Amino acid sequence: MTAGRDGEADGAQRERTRLSWRRTTLAYTVVTALAVRTALVDGNTPPARMAAALTALAWLGFLVVAHRRIHALTTAGGGVGGPVGAAAGRFVTGAVLCALVMAVLGAVLLW
């Protein structure tokens, strides 16, 4: 009976993590849209347009990272402690790098 509960817990954890990545992707999309809007409407200068283009590129990079993590969670070996769990650090590192790029570009747009 405990094994069944552990399996259910692992499945629920994967589902929560998958949904978390989807929410983060949605939030990242909104931030990207606002950054591009700010660059093109409020500060239509070449540096602002470059920052908007780099923001869109960082967004695409984050989409790739999030898609790969979500796919790894939905495949058979995607458990929390499995091989994907050990490699989850790569996904988190990629997401953090994309967020840092977005933060720097946001500062450039506001400055």
From TrEMBL:
<feature type="domain" description="DUF202">
    <location>
        <begin position="10"/>
        <end position="72"/>
    </location>
</feature>
<dbReference type="InterPro" id="IPR003807">
    <property type="entry name" value="DUF202"/>
</dbReference>
<feature type="transmembrane region" description="Helical">
    <location>
        <begin position="24"/>
        <end position="41"/>
    </location>
</feature>
<keyword id="KW-0472">Membrane</keyword>
<feature type="transmembrane region" description="Helical">
    <location>
        <begin position="47"/>
        <end position="66"/>
    </location>
</feature>
<keyword id="KW-1133">Transmembrane helix</keyword>
<dbReference type="Pfam" id="PF02656">
    <property type="entry name" value="DUF202"/>
</dbReference>
<dbReference type="GO" id="GO:0012505">
    <property type="term" value="C:endomembrane system"/>
</dbReference>
<keyword id="KW-0812">Transmembrane</keyword>
<feature type="transmembrane region" description="Helical">
    <location>
        <begin position="87"/>
        <end position="110"/>
    </location>
</feature>
<protein>
    <recommendedName>
        <fullName>DUF202 domain-containing protein</fullName>
    </recommendedName>
</protein>
